[in-house]
Each structure stands twice: as C-alpha cells, then as structure tokens.
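Lab notebook page, bench 4
Experiment: in silico fold of construct C2
Operator: M.H.
Input chain length: 208 residues
Purpose: comparison with the prior construct
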Amino acid sequence: MSSKSIINGFHATIYLFIIIFTASTLITSVSTFTTSASIYAKSTRRHKQVETAANTSLLLPPLKTAFGLNIQDDAPTPRRPITVVENNVLSDANGNEFTEDVTVVRVVRSGLKAYHVPKAGYGYFDEETKTFIPTLNSKDKLDRASKCLRLPVGLCGVVKRVYPKGKSDASHPILVAFDSGQEDSGGYDCPVKFSMHFQAREIECIIE
C-alpha cells in the first residue's frame, strides 16, 4: 500500500469522526432545546392558571356570601330545637317563654336522670301507676348509675332561674325546682325536693 493511500484513508477517518461528532452535538442541542421549551410552556400555563384563579376569586365571592346563605356543613339538627327571641330570652319548642318563678314546665325527654338528690330520692317511677319505686332498699350495693332519680316524662316543676344567651355559657341554662308531698299536674309525687338544670329541648311550658 502506498503512502498516498494511507494518507487518504487517514483523512477519510478524520472526516467521518467530525461528521459523527457534529451530528451528536446537534442531536443533544435539539433535545436540550425541546426540554427547555416544554418546561417553559408548563411554567407559563401554570402561571396563567394561578392568575386566572386569583382573578376569579376576586370577581366571584363565595357562594355563601353571594346568596346571603349561612350554611353549616354537617350541622346536627336537634330533635326539639331551642327558640331564642331577640331579647335573649329562652323559649321552648312551641315558642313559649321560660319565666323565672312563674313558668310551670313538664319533662318531655325520656332517659333523664337527677344525680344531685338525697338518698331517699334514688329510684324511678312506675310507668302505669306513676308510683315511686325506691332502689335504696335493694340488697345489692348500688353503683353510681343507680344513685339517682330517673325522671319520667310528664314530671312537673317550676322554673327558678334562666340564664339568657350571651350571659352564661352553661350547657343547661334552665334551672327547675321540683316539690314533694303533693301530686303534680302530671300525676307524679316526687319523693324529695330537688332542683336540676335542663336544656330547653328537654322541657316544655304548661299553658293553662
């Protein structure tokens, strides 16, 4: 092989290497440019979405404000709602106002228990005869759940104190006094005198 052929082959190899290197560089540049363009497009699109959301929040007020609604999500609905008039006086479910030392009320919710009563008041009332049945004479030792007076529906008392809304944070704002020694209008005779706090939904006014 002549020296001229060797030189020509060497030159051809160099040219081929230059062509491959140039093509590789061009492909890398195109790929980098495409990635940068994609990132820029996503950034621009996200910026526009944020700007649009911000403008929308300024132009469109929340649904509650726009329509004057006062919505409480998942707010429980009481069985017997408390009615509060404008002067912060509590009323029963029928709209009758609780007045101190005047209003006679009856228990309307079953399952209520009075724990702050003398021992002579531990017990319950027979549903049919309305006779008081004490548990103090039980041979078994009384647990805390039995050291109480189970209030029957219909038991009557007199409102002694009302805590208006905003002046007390008591959860049971109505204090009712129950007398003993005489049968009330519901046919019950309490074994002892006692007082107990109630929610408005637990009692109702007796209007004669």
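Observations: Residues 56-67, 69-73, 81-86 have pLDDT under 50 and may be disordered. The radius of gyration is 42 Å.
Next step: discuss at group meeting.
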